[in-house]
Hints:
The protein is an alpha+beta fold. The chain has one domain (2-94): Dimeric alpha+beta barrel (Alpha-Beta Plaits, 2-Layer Sandwich). It contains four helices and four strands; from the N terminus they run βααββαβα. It has helices at residues 12-16, 21-34, 60-72, 86-94; strands at residues 2-10, 38-44, 51-57, 76-83. A four-stranded antiparallel beta sheet has the order 2-3-1-4. The longest helix has 14 residues, at 21-34. The chain is elongated. InterPro entries: GYD/TTHA1554.
Amino acid sequence: MVTYVVLGNFTDQGVRNVKDSPKRADAYKEMAKTFGVTVKEIVWTQGRYDVVTVLEAPDEAAAMSLSLSLSALGNVRTETLRAFSAADMTKIVGKML
């Protein structure tokens, strides 16, 4: 599985309906399952981003399909970051010259 951190900002539509945000998060978790993606954590944040999500996907195509499906709903704009665990990073730096 591939880990991603998704940074999200509410659109104008998303802010107008912000009271529904927890319900939309539950719906997002269910949507993710249809792509074989597991949502590990969703947190609402103060500062530059409104929402931060950690998810695990079987591959990049599944993560991209989920991201596009979420964006099409119009409530949030996202930036997706590929994430590496300490174990992954140990293997990566072990291959350095």
